[in-house]
Protein: Protein kinase family protein
Organism: Bacillus siamensis
Amino acid sequence: MNTRLPTTNGTAHFWADPSRTLLKCIEISERLYYKLKETKIPIQINDYYRNLFHQCGEFLSYSGGSTIPSNMEKIDIYYKIPIYSLAHNIQIKSPTINSQIVMKSFDEGSYANIFKYKDPFYNKHFIVKKAKKDLNSKEIERFKLEYETLKSLSSPYIAEVFTYDDDKNQYVMEYMNWNLHKFILTKNTTLSAGVRKKIVYQIFKAFEYIHSKSLLHRDISPNNILLNDYEDALVVKVSDFGLVKLEDSQLTALDTDFKGRFNDPALKHVGFKNYAIHHEIYALTYVVYFVMTGKTTIKRTSNESLNQFIDAGLNHDFALRPKTVNELKNLFKEII
């Protein structure tokens, strides 16, 4: 791919066969990471490669070749830097008993490292989100704002948080079995339409509640929607409010770059600071399509009623999109 880079202000075509090969390599690498991170020897992906995988995954395609986006530089290849390394464990004091608990590295976000531990008092798992050490004061404030926003919400469809440690800039939250992305991809061949619809209705419930609080999530994706898979039910909860848009808040991130496959492409032109409800409707529609089909690339389906729902929620004319989550939900009810 480096032979097609840099793209400066234009784009470049990357041929179909090497596109497929590179995409398969990335998917195998990420699958290995998810398989091993829950073992006794948890691993982590080097930050450089993690960011590179994400960047390439945004435009690589299995069919017809790929369009390399503009302003992409040549990729530096570091032969002596391993893709994987052992994840570092950290220790904390249990909030319930006076003992040391070892926490395993679980995941990583833009602002935080995420750890998982089992509390011996409650005999259940919890998650700790710990702000990265290189954050500036404004970013730390925004990280704490995410906690305070979650703490202020009370809904069975919103991830629950518990305590914030100002000294360590970290907070404890509930542990969920899955994120939506991994759940759908793992179980896609066995999920019935009925189960998929139940998941969608819970997602609608979550965002009806969020919007009722005059909030816009602004980072809607299957990775930020969590699930608990109980013996008799699936429970959906929304998390990751790091980009939440609050009314009259000086901490709302207005200069955030457009990112993510599920965001409205129109944001590239209007700017993320102008994010509004119709952009949230677009992202929700895209997530519903993913739940119902298991696919992340929008294509016409054999279900015309589903196609009509997608056409409405992704309409290029903002005025023709549903105005609220309730309107979107009513359209979804029409799907046969």
